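Weekly modeling sync, notes
Attendees: AB, CL, MP (scribe)

Item 1: holo prediction request
CL wants a bound-state model with adenosine-5'-triphosphate before deciding which constructs to order. AB pointed out that an apo prediction alone won't tell us much about the pocket. Agreed to run with the ligand included and paste results into these notes for async review.

Input as submitted:
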Amino acid sequence: MLIIEDLKVEVGDTEILQNVNLHVPPGETHILFGPNGSGKTSLMMTIMGFSGYKVTGGKITFKGEDVTYMPIHERARLGIGVLFQRPPTINGLSTRRMVEICAGGKKVDVDALSRTLRFDSFIERDVNHNLSGGEIKRSELLQLSAQQPDLLLLDEPESGVDLESIALLGDSINSLLNRGIKRQSPCHTTIMERTPKSALVITHTGHILDYITADKGQVLYKGKLRCSRNAREILKWIREYGYEECVECSA
Ligand SMILES: Nc1ncnc2c1ncn2[C@@H]1O[C@H](COP(=O)(O)OP(=O)(O)OP(=O)(O)O)[C@@H](O)[C@H]1O
Protein backbone atom coordinates (compact mmCIF):
# COMPACT_ATOMS: atom_id res chain seq x y z
CA MET A 1 0.00 0.00 0.00
CA LEU A 2 2.61 2.56 1.14
CA ILE A 3 6.33 2.14 0.50
CA ILE A 4 8.83 4.79 1.52
CA GLU A 5 12.42 4.33 0.40
CA ASP A 6 15.43 6.31 1.60
CA LEU A 7 13.32 9.42 2.08
CA LYS A 8 15.15 12.65 2.89
CA VAL A 9 13.20 15.81 3.67
CA GLU A 10 14.21 19.38 4.40
CA VAL A 11 12.17 22.12 6.03
CA GLY A 12 13.77 25.48 5.43
CA ASP A 13 17.45 24.63 5.35
CA THR A 14 17.23 21.90 7.95
CA GLU A 15 17.18 18.21 7.17
CA ILE A 16 14.23 16.86 9.18
CA LEU A 17 14.05 13.29 7.87
CA GLN A 18 17.04 11.16 7.00
CA ASN A 19 16.89 7.98 4.93
CA VAL A 20 13.48 6.92 6.17
CA ASN A 21 12.35 3.49 5.00
CA LEU A 22 8.83 2.38 5.81
CA HIS A 23 6.44 -0.21 4.42
CA VAL A 24 2.77 -0.29 5.40
CA PRO A 25 1.17 -3.26 3.59
CA PRO A 26 -2.55 -3.30 2.67
CA GLY A 27 -4.74 -3.91 5.71
CA GLU A 28 -2.06 -3.08 8.28
CA THR A 29 -2.04 -0.39 10.95
CA HIS A 30 1.35 0.92 12.02
CA ILE A 31 1.99 3.13 15.04
CA LEU A 32 4.60 5.87 14.91
CA PHE A 33 6.22 6.81 18.21
CA GLY A 34 8.87 9.42 18.80
CA PRO A 35 9.77 12.31 21.09
CA ASN A 36 8.68 15.89 20.37
CA GLY A 37 10.40 17.31 17.34
CA SER A 38 11.60 13.95 15.99
CA GLY A 39 9.85 14.50 12.64
CA LYS A 40 6.63 12.46 12.91
CA THR A 41 4.28 15.19 11.69
CA SER A 42 6.79 16.15 8.99
CA LEU A 43 6.73 12.56 7.73
CA MET A 44 2.92 12.61 7.49
CA MET A 45 2.87 16.03 5.83
CA THR A 46 5.43 14.77 3.30
CA ILE A 47 3.40 11.63 2.57
CA MET A 48 0.36 13.86 1.97
CA GLY A 49 2.43 16.26 -0.15
CA PHE A 50 2.21 19.56 1.71
CA SER A 51 4.40 22.38 0.51
CA GLY A 52 7.28 23.40 2.76
CA TYR A 53 8.42 19.77 3.09
CA LYS A 54 11.07 19.46 0.41
CA VAL A 55 11.96 15.95 -0.67
CA THR A 56 15.69 15.94 -1.35
CA GLY A 57 16.05 12.20 -1.86
CA GLY A 58 14.17 8.92 -1.95
CA LYS A 59 10.75 7.86 -3.11
CA ILE A 60 7.17 7.49 -1.87
CA THR A 61 5.06 4.84 -3.59
CA PHE A 62 1.34 4.45 -2.89
CA LYS A 63 -0.70 1.62 -4.45
CA GLY A 64 2.16 1.06 -6.88
CA GLU A 65 2.28 4.69 -8.08
CA ASP A 66 5.19 7.02 -7.48
CA VAL A 67 3.55 9.89 -5.57
CA THR A 68 6.75 11.60 -4.38
CA TYR A 69 6.04 14.82 -6.25
CA MET A 70 2.31 14.41 -6.86
CA PRO A 71 0.03 17.32 -5.79
CA ILE A 72 -2.04 16.90 -2.61
CA HIS A 73 -5.42 16.67 -4.33
CA GLU A 74 -4.20 13.83 -6.55
CA ARG A 75 -2.87 11.92 -3.53
CA ALA A 76 -6.25 12.45 -1.83
CA ARG A 77 -8.04 11.17 -4.95
CA LEU A 78 -5.75 8.15 -4.98
CA GLY A 79 -6.87 7.38 -1.42
CA ILE A 80 -4.64 9.07 1.16
CA GLY A 81 -6.42 10.90 3.98
CA VAL A 82 -5.04 12.75 6.98
CA LEU A 83 -6.29 13.66 10.44
CA PHE A 84 -4.30 16.72 11.47
CA GLN A 85 -2.86 17.37 14.88
CA ARG A 86 -3.77 21.06 14.69
CA PRO A 87 -6.03 21.68 11.69
CA PRO A 88 -6.69 25.28 10.69
CA THR A 89 -9.95 27.18 11.05
CA ILE A 90 -11.52 27.84 7.65
CA ASN A 91 -13.76 30.87 7.87
CA GLY A 92 -16.59 31.01 5.36
CA LEU A 93 -16.74 27.26 4.78
CA SER A 94 -19.27 25.23 6.79
CA THR A 95 -18.30 21.80 8.08
CA ARG A 96 -21.30 20.36 6.21
CA ARG A 97 -19.96 21.71 2.91
CA MET A 98 -16.45 20.52 3.77
CA VAL A 99 -17.76 17.00 4.43
CA GLU A 100 -19.53 17.06 1.05
CA ILE A 101 -16.30 18.19 -0.63
CA CYS A 102 -14.41 15.37 1.11
CA ALA A 103 -16.93 12.88 -0.27
CA GLY A 104 -15.71 13.90 -3.75
CA GLY A 105 -19.04 13.46 -5.51
CA LYS A 106 -20.04 10.29 -3.63
CA LYS A 107 -23.46 10.46 -1.98
CA VAL A 108 -23.10 10.77 1.81
CA ASP A 109 -25.69 11.16 4.52
CA VAL A 110 -23.96 14.03 6.33
CA ASP A 111 -26.59 14.20 9.08
CA ALA A 112 -26.39 10.50 9.88
CA LEU A 113 -22.57 10.57 9.87
CA SER A 114 -22.46 13.62 12.11
CA ARG A 115 -24.94 12.05 14.56
CA THR A 116 -22.70 8.97 14.78
CA LEU A 117 -19.78 11.19 15.73
CA ARG A 118 -21.89 13.38 18.05
CA PHE A 119 -21.13 16.33 15.80
CA ASP A 120 -24.66 17.16 14.63
CA SER A 121 -24.97 20.36 16.70
CA PHE A 122 -21.78 21.78 15.10
CA ILE A 123 -22.29 20.73 11.49
CA GLU A 124 -23.30 24.21 10.24
CA ARG A 125 -20.31 25.92 11.90
CA ASP A 126 -17.35 27.03 9.85
CA VAL A 127 -14.63 24.39 9.80
CA ASN A 128 -12.98 24.24 13.24
CA HIS A 129 -14.43 27.59 14.28
CA ASN A 130 -14.73 27.84 18.08
CA LEU A 131 -14.50 24.08 18.57
CA SER A 132 -12.91 22.33 21.55
CA GLY A 133 -9.96 19.97 21.02
CA GLY A 134 -12.19 16.90 21.14
CA GLU A 135 -14.77 18.45 18.79
CA ILE A 136 -12.02 19.25 16.28
CA LYS A 137 -10.94 15.59 16.25
CA ARG A 138 -14.54 14.51 15.65
CA SER A 139 -14.81 17.02 12.82
CA GLU A 140 -11.63 15.61 11.28
CA LEU A 141 -12.96 12.06 11.52
CA LEU A 142 -16.25 13.14 10.00
CA GLN A 143 -14.38 14.48 6.98
CA LEU A 144 -12.35 11.26 6.73
CA SER A 145 -15.55 9.20 7.01
CA ALA A 146 -16.88 11.05 3.97
CA GLN A 147 -13.60 10.68 2.07
CA GLN A 148 -13.14 6.97 2.91
CA PRO A 149 -9.40 6.92 2.18
CA ASP A 150 -7.50 3.67 1.72
CA LEU A 151 -4.58 4.96 3.79
CA LEU A 152 -5.33 6.89 6.98
CA LEU A 153 -2.64 9.16 8.38
CA LEU A 154 -3.70 9.97 11.94
CA ASP A 155 -1.63 12.56 13.81
CA GLU A 156 -2.31 12.12 17.52
CA PRO A 157 -6.03 11.31 17.19
CA GLU A 158 -6.50 11.12 20.96
CA SER A 159 -4.70 14.31 21.98
CA GLY A 160 -7.01 16.67 23.87
CA VAL A 161 -9.78 14.08 23.90
CA ASP A 162 -11.41 12.85 27.12
CA LEU A 163 -11.27 9.12 27.85
CA GLU A 164 -14.94 8.52 27.04
CA SER A 165 -14.64 10.23 23.66
CA ILE A 166 -11.50 8.25 22.78
CA ALA A 167 -13.75 5.17 22.63
CA LEU A 168 -15.98 6.99 20.14
CA LEU A 169 -12.96 7.99 18.03
CA GLY A 170 -11.62 4.42 18.25
CA ASP A 171 -14.96 3.04 16.98
CA SER A 172 -14.97 5.54 14.14
CA ILE A 173 -11.37 4.73 13.15
CA ASN A 174 -12.16 1.01 13.27
CA SER A 175 -15.17 1.41 11.04
CA LEU A 176 -13.05 3.43 8.60
CA LEU A 177 -10.46 0.66 8.54
CA ASN A 178 -12.90 -2.23 8.23
CA ARG A 179 -15.50 -0.89 5.85
CA GLY A 180 -17.07 -3.81 4.06
CA ILE A 181 -18.37 -3.68 0.50
CA LYS A 182 -21.42 -5.62 -0.57
CA ARG A 183 -20.78 -7.77 -3.62
CA GLN A 184 -22.89 -10.33 -5.49
CA SER A 185 -21.25 -13.73 -5.64
CA PRO A 186 -21.80 -15.97 -8.72
CA CYS A 187 -24.54 -17.88 -6.87
CA HIS A 188 -26.31 -14.57 -6.10
CA THR A 189 -25.65 -14.64 -2.37
CA THR A 190 -24.67 -11.25 -1.00
CA ILE A 191 -21.28 -11.41 0.65
CA MET A 192 -19.23 -8.82 2.49
CA GLU A 193 -15.80 -8.19 1.08
CA ARG A 194 -13.22 -6.33 3.13
CA THR A 195 -11.22 -3.61 1.45
CA PRO A 196 -7.67 -3.70 2.80
CA LYS A 197 -7.34 -0.26 4.38
CA SER A 198 -4.15 0.78 6.11
CA ALA A 199 -3.18 3.35 8.70
CA LEU A 200 -0.17 5.14 10.10
CA VAL A 201 -0.96 6.54 13.55
CA ILE A 202 1.10 8.93 15.65
CA THR A 203 0.51 8.59 19.38
CA HIS A 204 2.29 9.88 22.48
CA THR A 205 0.09 8.38 25.16
CA GLY A 206 -0.74 5.09 23.46
CA HIS A 207 -4.38 5.35 24.67
CA ILE A 208 -5.61 4.75 21.14
CA LEU A 209 -4.00 1.28 21.26
CA ASP A 210 -6.83 0.22 23.59
CA TYR A 211 -9.28 0.69 20.70
CA ILE A 212 -7.49 -0.18 17.48
CA THR A 213 -5.46 -3.21 16.45
CA ALA A 214 -1.88 -2.29 15.65
CA ASP A 215 0.20 -4.61 13.49
CA LYS A 216 3.51 -2.90 14.13
CA GLY A 217 5.14 -0.03 15.97
CA GLN A 218 8.01 2.16 14.74
CA VAL A 219 10.12 4.73 16.54
CA LEU A 220 11.22 7.90 14.78
CA TYR A 221 14.14 9.48 16.57
CA LYS A 222 16.03 12.55 15.36
CA GLY A 223 14.65 12.14 11.86
CA LYS A 224 15.50 8.44 11.51
CA LEU A 225 13.31 5.37 11.90
CA ARG A 226 15.04 3.22 14.50
CA CYS A 227 12.88 0.51 15.91
CA SER A 228 10.27 -1.72 14.35
CA ARG A 229 8.38 -4.23 16.47
CA ASN A 230 5.17 -4.85 18.42
CA ALA A 231 3.60 -1.47 19.24
CA ARG A 232 2.64 -2.35 22.82
CA GLU A 233 6.15 -3.64 23.55
CA ILE A 234 7.63 -0.37 22.26
CA LEU A 235 5.22 1.70 24.36
CA LYS A 236 6.04 -0.32 27.49
CA TRP A 237 9.75 0.10 26.83
CA ILE A 238 9.45 3.86 26.26
CA ARG A 239 7.42 4.25 29.47
CA GLU A 240 9.97 2.29 31.50
CA TYR A 241 13.24 3.46 29.99
CA GLY A 242 12.57 6.46 27.75
CA TYR A 243 13.32 6.99 24.07
CA GLU A 244 17.11 6.98 24.29
CA GLU A 245 17.24 3.49 25.79
CA CYS A 246 14.62 2.30 23.34
CA VAL A 247 16.70 3.52 20.42
CA GLU A 248 19.91 2.03 21.83
CA CYS A 249 18.23 -1.34 22.23
CA SER A 250 17.25 -1.33 18.58
CA ALA A 251 20.63 -0.14 17.34
N1 LIG B 1 7.47 24.63 8.86
C1 LIG B 1 8.52 24.45 9.65
N2 LIG B 1 9.52 25.38 9.70
C2 LIG B 1 10.61 25.20 10.46
N3 LIG B 1 10.82 24.11 11.21
C3 LIG B 1 9.88 23.17 11.21
C4 LIG B 1 8.68 23.28 10.44
N4 LIG B 1 7.92 22.18 10.64
C5 LIG B 1 8.63 21.41 11.50
N5 LIG B 1 9.79 22.00 11.84
C6 LIG B 1 10.81 21.47 12.74
O1 LIG B 1 11.03 20.12 12.35
C7 LIG B 1 11.24 19.31 13.48
C8 LIG B 1 10.26 18.16 13.43
O2 LIG B 1 8.96 18.67 13.66
P1 LIG B 1 7.68 17.74 13.65
O3 LIG B 1 6.49 18.60 13.88
O4 LIG B 1 7.70 16.91 12.44
O5 LIG B 1 7.96 16.81 14.92
P2 LIG B 1 7.03 15.79 15.71
O6 LIG B 1 7.82 14.56 15.91
O7 LIG B 1 5.73 15.65 15.02
O8 LIG B 1 6.84 16.56 17.09
P3 LIG B 1 5.64 16.58 18.17
O9 LIG B 1 5.62 15.23 18.82
O10 LIG B 1 6.06 17.64 19.14
O11 LIG B 1 4.37 16.90 17.46
C9 LIG B 1 11.08 20.20 14.71
O12 LIG B 1 12.36 20.57 15.16
C10 LIG B 1 10.33 21.40 14.18
O13 LIG B 1 10.67 22.57 14.88
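Recorded for review: The chain has a mean pLDDT of 90.
Action items: CL to compare against the apo run; MP to circulate these notes.
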